[in-house]
Amino acid sequence: MNFSLTPQLEHFVREYAATGDYNNASEVVREALRLFKRTEEERHLKLKKLRQVINKGDDAIKKDEVTDISSIKELDDFFEKL
Predict the structure, then answer these.
(1) Nearest-angstrom CA–CA distance, 7 and 5
(2) So what's the pLDDT on residue 73?
(3) pLDDT tens-digit profile of 7-19?
(4) At what angle do helices 7-18 and 25-62 cross, to 10 degrees?
(5) Given CA atoms 48, 54, 58, 63 in this order, what sign does their dihedral have?
(6) Cα 26 to the chain's mean position, in Å?
(7) Sign of torsion, CA 18 22 23 25?
(8) End-to-end CA distance of the chain
(9) Of 11, 20, 32, 43, which is most buried with the most CB atoms under 10 A?
(10) Which residue ranges make up each domain of the chain?
């Protein structure tokens, strides 16, 4: 697989490879891709959880299981009870 980097990214990869923490530029890129993959997996999990919470909220609204909050004090009190 071949890919192109901007000059700035190429410089960044080469600098990290030269630190000695990595044996070569390929190791730097692999590590970056592993981190990107983990970040994307975490993002997908967060979105999944958010969708679940939204669905739960929608269900509560349909069942009229809601709490009306009309002031900061009421909001603070609500969060204290959680």
Answers:
(1) 6
(2) 95
(3) 999 999 999 999 9
(4) 110
(5) positive
(6) 25
(7) negative
(8) 51
(9) 32
(10) 7-81
